[in-house]
Structures are given as C-alpha cells and as structure tokens.
C-alpha cells in the first residue's frame, strides 16, 4: 500500500501497483486502492482518469475533491465538539442553578419560607429534587 500520489503524468508512469508491480494504465485513475480483502493487496483504481492534475484521477480520488471531503469532515467534527462543549456548559449551568435553589431553600426553610416570593417558595416546596437535597442536609 502506498500513500504516494503522483501529480504529473511522468510520475504516474514511473509507478507500479500491487505486489507483482503492475504497470500504470494511463486511461485509469492513478490512485492505488486496497483490494476487496486483505490478501489481494493494492491495485490501480479502475475508474476513468478525468480529474485532478493532468487529469490523472477519477472524481473520487481527485486530490482537490479528497481535500474538500476531508475539510468538510473536519468542519463537521469541530461543529460536533462545539455542540458537545455547549451541552456540557448548559449542564454545568443547570447544576449551578439547582445548587443555588437548594441553598436558598436551605436558608429559607420552615417558618422563613414566607419571606420568599411565592413562585420561589412554591418551586422549593414542589421540587422533589430540592426536597431530597434538603432532607439529606438535615440527616
Ligand atoms: Zn480513483
């Protein structure tokens, strides 16, 4: 297997494919591709040479097309990582908000609950996760 990719007709003509060393066929794409199984080694791509430098490659192995595909994959990976970071940040923010609510509930528990705005007192009274945390801190 070779990652060497000729960029001129002359370079392509100088190379061979596979273990026995098959000669370059000018009508076909210059890319060396793997066989159907691990035993068959590599061979010259069967597709018509129609693209890339000196039209040495097929549309799929055109170095520009390969680069565009790699760039698109990288952009998609980056977007995925950014989304993951944003999700992690959101989770952290929710956790902080929850901890704050538990802290407020702790300080305004029992007869001090009426000092809080009703919506907050109701939220603390109805939120089972907050009540569970309060019960833990009392234990
Ligand atoms: Zn090809």
What does this structure look like?
- The protein is mainly alpha-helical.
- It has four helices and four strands, in the order αββββααα.
- The chain has helices spanning 9-14, 63-107, 118-126, 128-138, and strands at 16-17, 22-23, 32-34, 42-44.
- The strands form two sheets. Strands 1-2 form a two-stranded antiparallel sheet.
- The longest helix is centred in the middle third of the chain and has 45 residues, at 63-107.
- Zinc ion (ZN) is lined by residues 29, 31, 45, 47, 57-58, 60-61.
**Radius of gyration (Å):** 32 Å
Distance between the ends: 67 Å
Strand content: 5-15%
Tally of separate helices: 4
Largest sheet: 2 strands, antiparallel
Q: What structural class do helix, strand and pairing data support?
A: mainly alpha
- The beta-strand count equals 4
For the largest sheet, list the strands in their spatial order: 1-2
- Mean model confidence by pLDDT: 90
Shape: rod-shaped
- Helix-strand pattern: HEEEEHHH
Estimate the helix proportion, in percent. 40-55%
Total number of domains: 2
Features:
mainly alpha; 4 helices; two-stranded antiparallel ribbon; 139 residues; single chain; 2 domains; binds zinc ion; rod-shaped
Q: How do the helices and strands line up, and which of them pair or pack?
A:
Layout: H1 9-14, E1 16-17, E2 22-23, E3 32-34, E4 42-44, H2 63-107, H3 118-126, H4 128-138
Antiparallel strand pairs: 1-2, 3-4
Helix pairs in contact: 2-4
The structure holds zinc ion.
